[in-house]
Amino acid sequence: MAGWQFPGIAHGADYYPEQWLDRPEILEADLEMMVKARVNLVTLGVFAWAMEEPEEGVFRFDWLRERLDALHARGIRVLLATPSGARPNWLAEKYPEVQRVGEDRRRNLPGMRMNHCYTSPVYRRLTQRIDTELARRFARHPAVVGWHISNEYHGECHCPLCQEAFRGWLQRRYGTLERLNAAWWTGFWSKHYTDWRQIASPSSLGERALPALRVDWLRFVTDQTRDFMSMEVEAVRPFNPVLPVTTNMIGRLIEIDTPRFRDLLDVAALDIYPEWGSGDDAAVADAAAMEHDLTRCLLDKPYLLLETTPSMTNWQAVGQPKRPGMHMLCAMQAIAHGADAFMMFQWRKARGGFEKFHGAVVSHDGRDDTRVFREVAETGARLARLGELKGSVTHAQAALIFDWNNRWAIGACKGPREGIDPDGEALAHYRALAALGIDVDVIDSEHGLDDYRLVCAPMLYMLKSGVAERLERFVCGGGTLLMTCFSALTDESDLCFDTGAPGPLRKLLGLRVEELDTLYPHQRNRVRFAPDGPLGGMEAAECDFWCEILHAETAETAAVYESDYYRGMPAVTRNRFGDGEAWYLGTRLGLDALRKVHASLSARAGIALQASGLSKGVRVHCREKDGVRYLFLLNFGDEPGNATIPPCVNLETGQPAGGMMVVPARQALVFRQAAFHARD
Amino acid sequence: MAGWQFPGIAHGADYYPEQWLDRPEILEADLEMMVKARVNLVTLGVFAWAMEEPEEGVFRFDWLRERLDALHARGIRVLLATPSGARPNWLAEKYPEVQRVGEDRRRNLPGMRMNHCYTSPVYRRLTQRIDTELARRFARHPAVVGWHISNEYHGECHCPLCQEAFRGWLQRRYGTLERLNAAWWTGFWSKHYTDWRQIASPSSLGERALPALRVDWLRFVTDQTRDFMSMEVEAVRPFNPVLPVTTNMIGRLIEIDTPRFRDLLDVAALDIYPEWGSGDDAAVADAAAMEHDLTRCLLDKPYLLLETTPSMTNWQAVGQPKRPGMHMLCAMQAIAHGADAFMMFQWRKARGGFEKFHGAVVSHDGRDDTRVFREVAETGARLARLGELKGSVTHAQAALIFDWNNRWAIGACKGPREGIDPDGEALAHYRALAALGIDVDVIDSEHGLDDYRLVCAPMLYMLKSGVAERLERFVCGGGTLLMTCFSALTDESDLCFDTGAPGPLRKLLGLRVEELDTLYPHQRNRVRFAPDGPLGGMEAAECDFWCEILHAETAETAAVYESDYYRGMPAVTRNRFGDGEAWYLGTRLGLDALRKVHASLSARAGIALQASGLSKGVRVHCREKDGVRYLFLLNFGDEPGNATIPPCVNLETGQPAGGMMVVPARQALVFRQAAFHARD
Amino acid sequence: MAGWQFPGIAHGADYYPEQWLDRPEILEADLEMMVKARVNLVTLGVFAWAMEEPEEGVFRFDWLRERLDALHARGIRVLLATPSGARPNWLAEKYPEVQRVGEDRRRNLPGMRMNHCYTSPVYRRLTQRIDTELARRFARHPAVVGWHISNEYHGECHCPLCQEAFRGWLQRRYGTLERLNAAWWTGFWSKHYTDWRQIASPSSLGERALPALRVDWLRFVTDQTRDFMSMEVEAVRPFNPVLPVTTNMIGRLIEIDTPRFRDLLDVAALDIYPEWGSGDDAAVADAAAMEHDLTRCLLDKPYLLLETTPSMTNWQAVGQPKRPGMHMLCAMQAIAHGADAFMMFQWRKARGGFEKFHGAVVSHDGRDDTRVFREVAETGARLARLGELKGSVTHAQAALIFDWNNRWAIGACKGPREGIDPDGEALAHYRALAALGIDVDVIDSEHGLDDYRLVCAPMLYMLKSGVAERLERFVCGGGTLLMTCFSALTDESDLCFDTGAPGPLRKLLGLRVEELDTLYPHQRNRVRFAPDGPLGGMEAAECDFWCEILHAETAETAAVYESDYYRGMPAVTRNRFGDGEAWYLGTRLGLDALRKVHASLSARAGIALQASGLSKGVRVHCREKDGVRYLFLLNFGDEPGNATIPPCVNLETGQPAGGMMVVPARQALVFRQAAFHARD
Q1: CATH number, position A576
Q2: What integer best gives the mean pLDDT of chain C?
Q3: Model's pTM, two decimal places?
Q4: Do the Cβ atoms of A520 and B356 come within 8 Å?
Q5: Beta carbons within 8 Å of B52's beta carbon, 6+ residues apart
Q6: Domain holding C52: CATH number?
Q7: Which domain-ending residue is among A371, A389, A407?
Q8: ipTM score here?
Q9: Do residues A503 and B351 make contact, with C-beta atoms less than 8 angstroms apart?
Q10: Domain range holding C298?
Q11: Which residues of chain B make contact with A496, given a CB cutoff of 8 A?
């Protein structure tokens, strides 16, 4: 089986030599500067289709072979990309069917990128051919260490071919229209389908009021995209079966159910562009961290960070350059979360085009005496010294359920109010755990739970089949579960449970929900914690947005509402179930209160903290390998920060360490604990 | 002639048993709970077309007959709906012409509801057939007490059939292109039409700069909608000529000139969804009240409230549940304004679909021990006790002119500034009167004025033909008229009067308007009342938005502007005309000042108040029947409120009452005055 | 050669008698009131096509001849318009190809105005014919003093005819696809074109990510529009070669490169609608002034102000009437900047249509005893007294470069941040100079620089070919140049210079730019001026939005940043070059600091001020003729303002003047200096 065999931590960038083939002195300078910057891996060939196949069936790979050879000669390895991310103009001109059709049923004109119909037989055939030609030539080139399949798959197409494929997908899913009608509740508004042909994708011009249709459509879109990728993988795989395959994913992108790509990947990969400086950098770091964890949990092993900017982007509202030190800190964050590669977009700035002002290691002036180049080179040097971390793994004891079907189903809801934000809710819980120094796995609802002591499933509105049973088993076996408002309302078809919320979790949570009150932006309530309850001692805290009116059945009340007509009724509950505890939070709390709740729950759950006394902005993470634990302290703040850690040694200096450590602003420290007994 | 013969006040909900036909235990539970909730009327069949005619020409009504029988057996009556509000999928698939075309000339795809082309002969034919089949079977079913024609008619279609119909409508209206060209002032921008075919509906892709075209288009849309409804009425009527007909209207909806439906209705009906909690509930209540009054004035007799939520909606920005007591108060508000039915959307929440989180009497869990069910049942019980109110009428002495042609014409104007809001202006005057405890008729400009002492015609920009004469006659005969800024500028064709504003009302108002100053949001002016003028004693008040520069001719100046270049010029005037007075307010005042103006005018006009000393949030209304007057005190505030009323008895307790009464927060009291002499 | 031969200052309005042909008493009243208002010129025939050619090939000009004769009889001259600004309905109906296609490839429906395809052979043919018919009849009518070609040319069409013309334009520009591919940097994202047919205009449905395509498209649009105008000029010119030609332009309109119309114009003309009252009227006045200067600099001689409202518009957010005095002040502003005509839109308000509430000299009521009429008449009388100013010219010593290619290129950029506003930047520098009392020429980057002492080229992102050389020559010869952040990044093809910024200006400016930092809205930096540097003595000032990190090479540092990682690095520099100085401002300063910078630079550059000690809101301008200088003091403030001027006489009173003068609020004074030696 193919696996990521790279020696040490990979460091490099997307490289587009095809833009400079008429400037050999620049190509040469690139190589020299790469060595200077400690680049050991570059991604080649993303968007090179027009260079590789300038007209249909005419292939030109000499330039690529030359670049591979030259890179190889310098000891730089290559992640080779299939070029399907951008079509050549001749292709779109000749075969208009490859262009996507929007939800409003208008077909795109040629242009842009990453906007192909994944159903189109023509596009599949031509992609397969260029992939095959590429693989035939280079799958065994000594520089090539893996496949980078296409680029940031996403988007949806509503063309007639996709409509037909969607209907086929529905036929396979439901078998009969009767079952589909039942699942989609078409008795409402006379929506009964009497022929498969009546079904079409959601559209602002047509059906936009059938949530189950939208959820199934997005499931189909993921499956169709996955199927396209599978075709690409099969095109390149035969030419070197041990070459690992990956594709660069956009962490929390809404429309593609990333975990469904698991079995196509030998190694997972992430593109990430945090907006440092936009506000509190610790908050920005946590949002990024969540995407790192999500990527790691796809395969539960080290992954690749394939794109991040060395300085700024051109496409964010404010494309601010990273402040000094931030680039190195980003690299350390990636490694701390389990990445084995830290790659940038891009090596050299294009002179023209949409992204000509996107940051790069080398700017238009081709200089290597810039701040950006210097920081990149320093980062490369440091990563080179951290090679032993390669292959070490994360053993999180806490998990956060972040599920695409659930996000889609909530997004497909009309109401009961505006602004429902499952991602924001997930991030709030993630941040509460991160601030406590707890490593978190970010998993979908089909992921196993056996490894965890604490599982947080915020706003798990849709319970896919099997999830209720898995959660019960987890708690029964001693786990601690935290669920929150607007959860367990619908089944996998988005049908509301006819027992009301929390449907099949009523026994586990020990309660039922009578009403959901929603608050206007000018309204607030407060929760008061029962002094002798399981969260006794916590201060009353403000809550807003919505408040569920709960009836505790077997659950104990940990907190009650302070005002309104449900004053005194439970707002937070705890239900003992088997050997574990199932908690429920019926309203939205601020970050401070959430952190206190998680501090209490994680302590009860027996989660051992690797560090304590973290200053605001300081985060701690662990990786483990061969009985050794690596401890990372990252400080995203503007001021030096503290953390208290167990006795260990500084991995880079070899100095003994432990106790209260000071982490300078925007810096990272790495420690090694040798006398460590791995959990499993 | 058909009339609403229901015994007592109707109480019930929209009921969709077709969603639960495979769950007989639920259908049975529904009946039991309806009895518990004191439901005596349900609306059946809205959106049931797909169940009634699963394929073209195949009819299935057994399920409906069973439900009618079962309801009848429990003593529950039925308002039976024609199902044209939602098309079956087979219909849209087979006959694409039934789908509306947008103003951008794109035809809808199948989906949604209430989006059919009202011109389409196919849609008319199929609607007529299903209506006929329905009526043939059930028009004489003992449970059926009336027809609910379709659902919330609205919207416009720009398809070729509608374009052709529009051109025909214009030919009938204008006879010759010459007359149309003159009316539309096509000498501007070379817009002269030389062939009827050149005319098309307004479009963002085409003509959007011809206000008269837009106004005529909206007139046509109303007429076409009305014609469609007329076809439906004629389809069902023959099967039981005494069964009354109604349709549920959306009060102030802009695109349909509701009063034009008068002669199709045996009883008027309203759907209403106030956003309680969004701000000041008294303001929310007044906005709702205005819609109640508007609905009552369609036929000048009791009407039906056909839809309101028992708890929350799913489609408002914040779908907040009604606070305890509010549901009962809403019911009392409806009755106080003249409703003889209080019906809810909906009986039971759907498990799926667009509105699955819309409030209902029974939620997904099917329980009757909820707060919502309890409040509904209490309301039903109270309405049952108030049966004698049925058929009593409102005799308002004040009227507010609220005219669709006028709203359209203002909306079609480009300028002279943004934010011109005739509805907001109407509501402000309505609220000023409501706060004084004055019952108000909300009428269009064609409604008779003989019954009123005070008529308020705010921002009556377009004077349809005959209106000037009617207003003159009203004042001449002793009435008091109040008009305001931006009035009497154009005739029925939206042509500016070539004598300037106020055109034919110059003699009645005794003034002319030279200029309209508009104020930026940061600008204000003030009006100062002449101490010895007709509003002497009123404090100076801020004004904003715009200020007309008036030349009083025969009018007296009641107030002048305090600043700017028109300082000292008239801002408020009064003109004695015949036996009455015509007032003019040349600027926009705040609500407090407006209330004082109305207090003064209504006192001069001799309007007798039924109550005095109303606390903020308390409203008073009267209904009369057989020499008895019923007095309602409603308190929309969060605190107990007061009102002083004449001697009477509490209708529900039988206790003597009168003098200063305390109305608890969010409650309503009903009194009876027996020794009352009806006005006419 | 044709030239503007009007005797004295023209005063008048757009006049649309075609709307009133059935009202002869109104036409007669118009003439009488025009005389009263001192109107000596009207614009006739704009939008009269439907009246002139009611069906294809049928011409009706009698009404026009009658109006021309009648006006002539009263001594009123006529600027005669070709009617191509609005199509008759028969034309759009018969020839759909004349209707524009939007960037989304949807063709307009008939309607609106100024939305024709300039490529359409049909539209060209029919325009040419109506123009010819018009010119044949009236080019030698004694009342006619010039041609007003069409109306406010602007907009773009994406129809197949335009696509074809665009491809032809590109073929002429680039010759080969290879050169086009190189210029557009199509190596990025596989955008290599292999056939001309693959190229299409930018579209939200297609290519929207190729900045060079967008810039070339806008160049094409200007050229195509210019070509259309050229066709119209050639249609009318032969019938009277000495009749001057103009077209009314919309000053800073983005999509048309106004200076490219230079050689079609005998006299330049401007339409302008400042939003007086919207904020600080001095700021509004400066924005208007910049458009006046831009129009004057098209031909470097007196121009015509062809449209402004006498009171209010109907299409602005708040169409506020001008306050008393403002209309006269506007007229004086126009004259002060070099206009020889002050014309209004419009003479009389239309009774219907889109602009029926647009201000006019005569309102719907036809009265001449209004404030608006009175102020117009007073303005007319004053202009009649100022006839000697006619033909006098402006000799500005400072110039501001305002270049369309540059604006387009910046607009086509993706990033590096949002909100980049070259127009706002230009206006800020313009205002700084205006507040110092310096007359400014507003020129494009191809305009000669020999006449100036100071040239300000803010945000000159794109350096068209030849510009670098011209700037070098200017400074070398003793000029003072000021450039600012985000400049000199790309060449004429929008390719980034491969030496980085400032590309070919590195020697002239004596620096290079390493990085561009962008600041979030909540962030600020400050610049500190070196005490012994060339701006020593200036107080530290706040800067925001972005900060370039500069390396001064031969330049001196005038100011440094106070904070962030580039603290202490240069923010403002000065480079001596030949006999002049090249300044660079690497960040964005507030208006106060900018004014101080310009005060210092203009003093160094030896610019003589015509007045000093200007109060806020007071502006000074000069015109010169025959050795006489006319000095204007304009006060846009609400309070009287001061200015100190040299000895002279008040042109209108003949009184000696000089020293500190008081200008009343919203008034203008004009002085004459006889003993003046013209600069050249």
Answers
A1: 3.40.50.880
A2: 97
A3: 0.97
A4: no
A5: B45, B59, B60, B61, B64, B83, B130, B133, B134
A6: 3.20.20.80
A7: A389
A8: 0.96
A9: no
A10: 10-160+204-389
A11: 349, 351-352, 356, 364
